Amino acid sequence: MQWPKEIFHVDKPVIAMCHLQALPGDPAYDTAGGMKKVIDKALADLTHLQDGGVDAVMFSNEFSLPYLTKVRPETTAAMARVIGEVMPSIKIPFGVNVLWDPIASIDLAAATGALFIREIISGVYASDFGLWNTNVGETVRHKMRLAPDLKLLYNIVPEAASYLGNRNIVDIAKSTVFNNRPDALCVSGLTAGAETDTQILSSVKAAVPGTVVLCNTGCRLENVERQLSVSDGAVVGSTFKIDGVFENAVDPARVKAFMDKVKSIRH
């Protein structure tokens, strides 16, 4: 339970998402703007997030819709290019999330020096992207080969998917912790920006009291005090966007207002 304080230097850290624009090979990739546009937008969002006082940032290929559960090499390569370009401006701890491929996420973390990944690492799901399987044993061994100190944040309520099998979230949390020893569990709503049920957060936290539990989606100015009263931190994306809209750029005023509230709660 001590590792978040060691990495983020605060209690109940807020990990902000830096959503990368569509990348080469993605359906929505802007061929006219090219990689320069992707890098410029990433740098602008990163700057606004850091200036607003977030505790960490996580780079993800959020606009690579529809997502692959095994990404192609060009996606990981493009993300490494973006992170490499903005690296001189990164002032806070950072992680990566190559949606939805934990092996690729580990590869990217090893290449960039990221301290953590968030992924669907265990379980089998029926999802919008088809039957979604994982191989947690192989994933963890891959991490040990490439980046033994990397922290693995297990998303146990994947967005746009449901666990294949009649098991409730508490049972899933217990067995995930027992079998896999995750560094943290991430509990989500249905989609990016959808509010995480506080009761579910409470149930998971009570079931695995010795494990870090993060609110993974839908943390907003009006509910953050309630969510952080239960969880050990939050991953925040859409809330920081202009008008709180997923597709928009980061709004520095919204970041500052949210983090001012968080800091008042923590102190």
TrEMBL record:
Alphabetized Pfam families for the sequence: BtpA (PF03437)
UniProt keyword Cell membrane, yes or no: no
InterPro entries, A to Z: BtpA (IPR005137), RibuloseP-bd_barrel (IPR011060)
Sorted UniProt keywords: Plasmid
Keyword Lipoprotein listed: no
Family: Belongs to the BtpA family.
Protein's name in the database: Nucleoside triphosphatase
Species, as recorded: Rhizobium grahamii CCGE 502
